[in-house]
Amino acid sequence: GTGTVYVDDGKFASEMTGSSNGTTFAAHTVSDGEYIYSWTDMAPFGMKMSLTKAKEMSAQAAAEVEATGGTPASETGDVSAAYDYDCDSWNADASVFVVPTNITFSEFNY
Known about the structure:
Helix content: 10-25%
Strand content: 35-45%
Oligomer: single chain
Mean pLDDT: 85
Order of helices and strands: EEEEEHHE
Number of helices: 2
Largest sheet: 6 strands, mixed
Distance between the termini: 29 Å
């Protein structure tokens, strides 16, 4: 697939395309600095998670990997071999970080 990631002032958004079982879809993520919202164009619903909770879960997973002597997923392969990157500056467009109102988001808590 392909994608674009936008970053500005503590916020980020991504638009990725991919395919599954021959069906092409778009996956979206937006963070307003407080929550992370994720959804696809295949359904009118998505997930949201507190950015604080996401950071806690990431730290916990890293601690578990270290405690068990496992290898973090980020170290299991050469990411640069799988993706091409093209980073450009941009004039930030606030509309990129707007959470859609036509998607119903459910809170993701573990």
